[in-house]
Amino acid sequence: MPDTTSAAPHRHRSARPEPPRRSLQQTPPQPPSPFPDARAIRRQRRFTPALLIGILVTLGLLLLSLSTGQYAVFSEDGFWMFGITRVPRTVALVLAGASMAMCGLIMQLLTQNRFVEPTTTGTTEWAGLGLILVLWLFPGASMLARMSGAVTMAFIGTVIFFLFLQRVTLKSSLIVPIIGIMLGAVVSSFTTYIALMTDHLQTLGIWFAGSFTRVVEGRYELMFLVLVVTVLVFLTADRFTVAGLGRDMATNVGLNYTAVLFLGTAMVAVATGVTATVVGTLPFLGLIVPNIVSLFRGDDLRSNLPWVALLGIATVTACDLIGRTIRAPFEIPVGLVLGLLGAVVFIGLLLRQRRKGGLVA
Amino acid sequence: MTEQLDRARRTGQSAAGGPADSGTTAPGGGAPGDEAPDRETPAQLSRHSGAITTGRHRVRYWGVMALLGGLSVFFTAGILGYDNPMPFGTEGYWLIARMRAETVLVIGVVVLAQAMATVAFQTATNNRIITPSIMGFESLYVAIQTGAVFFFGIAGVTLVTGLPQFLMQAAAMVLFAVILYSWLLSGRFSNIHIMLLVGVVLGGGLGSLATFMQRVLTPSEFDVLTARLFGNIGNARSEYLPYALPIVLAAALLLWWRARRLNVVALGRNTAENLGVDHRREVMLILTLVSVLMAMSTSLVGPMTFLGFLVATLAYQFADTYSHRMLFPMAILIGYTVLAGAYFIMRNIFYAQGAVTLIIELLGGVVFLIVLMRKGRL
Fold first, then answer.
1. Contacts of B129 in chain A (CB under 8 A)
2. A354: confidence class by pLDDT, cuts 50, 70, 90
3. CB burial class (10 A; 0-12, 13-18, 19+) of residue A297?
4. pTM for this structure?
């Protein structure tokens, strides 16, 4: 596992847009300008009543998630059961939803392409390959070992994809996800082959469906690694905004572009790898959520981040609830629900942009 | 478009009048005649822009074709006659040979469909890196099959197996494709890339839908469904052959007939329209035929993602020409060699016929990666 935390040295602090400093020679103190400090505006924009409502709705969904299930939690030993399954599951929902949505956002900024996210670049498939490789080479490996394999392969895969994007001139931004999905198909055919040879085909099927069913106490603690990533994203958001301007522009304003690229890739790999190991694949999440937030709120990353996290959590929780209740006592994996709804929303977004003529190749 | 390599070579032969009638006539679509105006020096390098540029090019093309033809015959004979347990000439011998002939026929039909479909599709989309199989045809097929069982239980199985049903399904797939394409390719902002991406995402969504429905089935229904859903090369749904074969042949003939127009479509939309080809209509027609071919191939042996890609890429590499009348046969022969060879080797050496498609997927996947990394523009 690469050490990701030290990848951003402090000298990039200068990359933050700061309010213009008044020089000392200005003698008359000027009247307060009609344009208040940019930071103050941002703070206002970040904590709006709307966000509060969003938080409340999401909390409501989480409470629903805590209270949904087959086991009567208000019985004798219900509380014990509550602690073993319901709480871990809900925590995992929060972490997976927030982190995967943010991963999509980061990847979209780094590639300057709206249609990029872990499932459309093959990152998820690479993580699956890592999982199978570990299972094959070290039978009976611990969760931690499997996760390291997934993270490492996800990192390698994402780097390969980014390298490819830098090498190739593209006629249209829409080609990127198509190539990514093809690449994912190649990787997953390798994974299938190894799985077939080593009798892990069923494991693979279960894994690809992405479900929170298996998330119980003792299995989900690794998810807290994702929490670290999520916090890191919040801390380094501005750098990604600048990186989103492109390599030349970012370098011009004093950003170490390569370092940011590396940091972003590492964070995406960790989040995808860990989520893949504990939960499985969550298709389209990183694509839909940031795009919808952008539709409503524009592109200010810092004030959008809480929204992206919230919407990610709410989406995953809602899909998980659908999967849990539609055929109780059986469960439909959340990945399937997401795949279905996600595809519909994605096509809707595409056609909307097409109508606006924003996608003329 | 092909570069005219070794233009400086003195060949002494003009390109016209070679053994290939189809490839050597001046290409349709307004390309200039195949002789340059400087005829005063007949023994000079003959400059022309036909499908075959130099004598060496022609030799190479036909050499490769002959080699592939030989290999195809060899593998066909191998599949038919190798390791037959019965003594030659007995009734049992011919029974076994007949069963194997069916396999050969399946391989032929699948390859014909996949090779033609992929080359035509890549021409229509003006992009040599994508294949029709990511456009969600397989997912649609699976979704239709699963849906029938989902809504009608075990009785639904009879709704999806049987010949009229097979034709209905194929018709549904084609209809779906035509509606999708015509809708996405019409209007002011029609854009082939959006069409592709919508197709890919739709494929993913349909796949999720099918898996979703499968989850809800009872175990016995699920068993029946999976038994019915997919064959593979060694165990194809051969009862469909008598219907799939003529349909595939008809579609392939149509593509062959319009091959010259394909040459023009390959030049891109603006050029094609300047040369008087109704580009959108042509693309629509090609995509419809492609969906027919893919529907047939999928219903016979299930999904194959990279076979078409592998075949088309190798055909471009070896044929090195824009002429579809030369690309199609090359692609078909390459495909047949690859698929029959893989089947023969896997069956008789590794005893793993089930893994044939997987091996080809791996091979095609590797070629895809290589092509991807070598390409400069997409």
1. 179, 182
2. confident
3. middle
4. 0.75
